[in-house]
């Protein structure tokens, strides 16, 4: 069975995702150090207790996720569910890798890139081929979709992601241009409105998104935080498997949010 040292993998991931380029809400990279050598990785959206338990049951050496641990402004005390998660990782000598904004932004493996691929969006690109991005942290992407009504776009999203999205706007509104940012980016809608797209897609919704859609004419779609961010970590895991020839399995633990 092929293997890679934890240090080598951590360095490769940091370089490939350019983690030092981001000012994030959490540390990116190796968050908890475990075994020195890795043969098997379980990937998932969030480093939940259920994902940790599944990894230990499968004798994995590491988990790699989008939503890791040690978020800014969280209570640093180790007790309750937080203590249990960390205790599980330490007890089983399990490496924990987490990549938040670097994974959102990656032009090939990132959540925005992978969501565009699954929804059939054509990202607008700069002269050098990189995707056009804007808004807070340059995390919003812009592009075109196959012309359709808002209702029809909602149906396409439901078919692609396996869950019914929340649609805010006139059902028969014609959609040709879109902006999107996966996860909890509902507060970035104003930037999407300002750039003149027909619809803005993200994961979650807030109360004000309804009024912004009604008053601006820009449709808003909340397709699920988890549902829109399943694909970046899968793509990253596949890249690791190709690079090092080790076993990488994605585990989708569904989350209705």
Fill in the keyword field for this structure.
single chain, 257 residues, seven-stranded mixed β-sheet, elongated, 14 strands, 10 helices, five-stranded mixed β-sheet, alpha/beta, Udp-n-acetylmuramoylalanyl-d-glutamate--2,6- Diaminopimelate Ligase, Chain: A, domain 1
Number of domains: 2
The CATH superfamily label of the largest domain reads NIF3 (NGG1p interacting factor 3)-like
Query: What's the rounded overall pLDDT mean?
Result: 97
The run of helices and strands is EHEEEHEHEHHEEEHEEHEHEHHE
Q: What shape does the CA trace take?
A: elongated
Number of strands: 14
Quick recap:
The chain has about 260 residues and is an alpha/beta fold.
Tell me what the structure shows.
The chain is α/β, with parallel strands linked by helices and 257 residues long. It has two domains: 4-104 and 230-250, NIF3 (NGG1p interacting factor 3)-like (Udp-n-acetylmuramoylalanyl-d-glutamate--2,6- Diaminopimelate Ligase, Chain: A, domain 1, 3-Layer(aba) Sandwich); 105-225, Udp-n-acetylmuramoylalanyl-d-glutamate--2,6- Diaminopimelate Ligase, Chain: A, domain 1 (3-Layer(aba) Sandwich), CATH 3.40.1390. Helices cover 36% and strands 24% of the residues. Strands 7, 8, 9, 10, 11, 12 and 13 form a seven-stranded mixed β-sheet that branches. α5 crosses α10 (231-244). The longest helix has 14 residues, at 231-244. The model has no long low-confidence stretch (mean pLDDT 97).
């Amino acid at each position: 069975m092929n293997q890679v040292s934890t240090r080598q993998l951590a360095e490769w991931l940091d370089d490939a995702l350019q983690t030092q380029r981001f000012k994030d809400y959490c540390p990116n990279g190796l968050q908890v150090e475990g075994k020195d050598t890795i043969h098997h990785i379980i990937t998932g959206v969030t480093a939940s207790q259920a994902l940790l338990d599944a990894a230990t049951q499968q004798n994995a050496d590491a988990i790699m996720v989008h939503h890791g641990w040690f978020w800014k402004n969280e209570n640093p005390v180790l007790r309750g569910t937080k203590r249990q998660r960390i205790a599980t990782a330490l007890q089983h000598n399990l490496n924990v890798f987490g990549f938040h904004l670097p994974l959102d932004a990656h032009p090939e493996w990132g959540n925005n890139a992978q969501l565009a691929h699954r929804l059939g969006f054509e990202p607008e690109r700069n002269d050098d081929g990189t995707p056009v991005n804007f808004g807070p942290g340059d995390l919003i992407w812009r592009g075109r979709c196959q012309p359709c009504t808002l209702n029809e776009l909602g149906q396409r999203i439901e078919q692609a992601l396996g869950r019914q999205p929340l649609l805010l706007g006139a059902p028969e509104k014609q959609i040709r241009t879109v902006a999107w940012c996966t996860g909890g980016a509902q507060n970035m809608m104003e930037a999407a409105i300002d750039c003149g797209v027909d619809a803005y897609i993200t994961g979650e919704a807030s109360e004000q998104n309804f009024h912004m859609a009604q008053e601006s004419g820009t449709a808003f779609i909340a397709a699920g935080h988890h549902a829109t961010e399943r694909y970046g970590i899968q793509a990253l895991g596949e890249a690791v498997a190709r690079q090092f020839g080790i076993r990488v399995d994605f585990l989708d633990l569904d989350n209705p949010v």
